[in-house]
């Protein structure tokens, strides 16, 4: 492998790259425990400086007065820059998160596509002229909010960062991005490309550090006019409370415990491949992981055998090995958390069908690996079936009929995604309507398109990301009345 350049310990604060003044944090490669880089966190004074510079840059006529097609051109240049540096970005993210290179390469491509998509959306979005109701013409216009606080998790940083930065910039704002503490490297690299592409540097600050310190300072900063959050539901509640106190808008993409449903007529090869991908790709560290797998009771044993054989055959290894299907967990602490949750599942009475432990291969001994795990024998209300594990752990659950299935699938506080495997499109549509989820995949799973809105229901989120109208969620609406009457308003006349 090529020598890996150690990223500099600098963060962009209001247009100036500098050393963070908070505590230092080591970015560790979870495939072997080696230190990839050390990055100092931002402190509250740097958050303040970034917010002031962001507000000034957003209000600067050089940015504020750009026409949509001019701003779009800058976004396209960012997309070009990401594509030019695609392999470095993918490797950086693999080294920092453990994800397989094939996955991080897809995330980098998706980030470039996101910038290009919002450039196109910006150029083609139209305003509204509501019907006239009097002697005036009303225009509904959309204006930037000013400074956006974007807070993202560690599982897919470049894609989740781009999904916030691109529509926020398209909408005319500045962004303060707070990446996850353990995985800031690709977000910092993205900022360098955004600046190099000609986006005024004050418009994008990247402020790594602990969520309860740096994230909290961003969320409470008086200049921040909207919060765009992706992460866990518990953090979402904290940020929702701050947004409520400050009366600012917030969008939240939160956790999940998504059902994947096998119907009796499902095509076995497609269903098994899709279910394994849905729960074990990204080593299960995916908000939309299909972690509750519903099987028809009459054929439970046959499906269970197929899935267990498939899970047992998955290839574990470092993300940099092209043959790897399941990489390490993103951090050693998270691997230990996942192991603890499987131990608790055993205490709840779970049978471990496969995995359920750290692999014993010497080849994997230095990394944060955990074997793909399938559990059975739990009731749908067991803690293991209710709480997000965010690791390579799926639970098999039998169902009797469609009523029982829908009741069990919806018996969760979450509502992020659902998979349905059936050849019967009527049944597919019925289930798609009845299962409470923001996204339903039929005969596929974990497919994404930037042009399709993404949201969670129940405790999985608030508002949508993606799609053309995401730009509007980073803007304020204003109504302008142009009086057309030739005569003064009669009320004040004597
Ligand atoms: P997390 O909620 O712990 O952290 C997410 C981000 O919030 C991090 O940057 C963190 O530093 C910050 N943060 C934490 N506490 C904060 C606070 N008090 N104030 C401000 N910021 C704070 O989540 P995580 O462990 O990084 O990520 C995993 C979670 O993210 C899972 O629940 C997963 O389902 C969810 N997720 C959801 C989606 C989605 O689109 N719905 C996508 C990816 C991940």
Compact summary:
By secondary structure, the protein is an alpha/beta fold.
Which short descriptors sum up this protein?
globular, 38% helix, alpha/beta, 494 residues, 20% strand, Aldehyde Dehydrogenase, Chain A, domain 2, six-stranded mixed beta sheet, seven-stranded mixed beta sheet, Aldehyde Dehydrogenase, Chain A, domain 1, binds nicotinamide-adenine-dinucleotide
Q: What is the topological layout?
A:
Layout: E1 11-13, E2 16-18, E3 24-28, E4 35-40, H1 44-59, H2 61-64, H3 68-84, H4 86-97, H5 101-124, E5 136-144, E6 147-151, H6 157-170, E7 174-178, H7 185-196, E8 204-206, H8 211-220, E9 224-230, H9 233-246, E10 250-253, E11 259-262, H10 268-280, E12 292-296, H11 300-312, H12 332-347, E13 351-354, E14 373-376, H13 383-386, E15 393-399, H14 402-409, E16 417-421, H15 425-434, E17 439-442, E18 454-455, E19 461-462, E20 464-465, E21 475-483
Parallel strand pairs: 6-7, 6-9, 7-8, 9-10, 11-12, 11-16, 12-15, 14-15, 16-17
Antiparallel strand pairs: 1-2, 3-4, 5-21, 10-19, 13-14, 18-20
Helix pairs in contact: 1-8, 3-5, 3-7, 4-5, 4-7, 5-6, 10-11
Bound molecules: nicotinamide-adenine-dinucleotide.
The site of nicotinamide-adenine-dinucleotide has 29 residues, from helix 8 and helix 9.
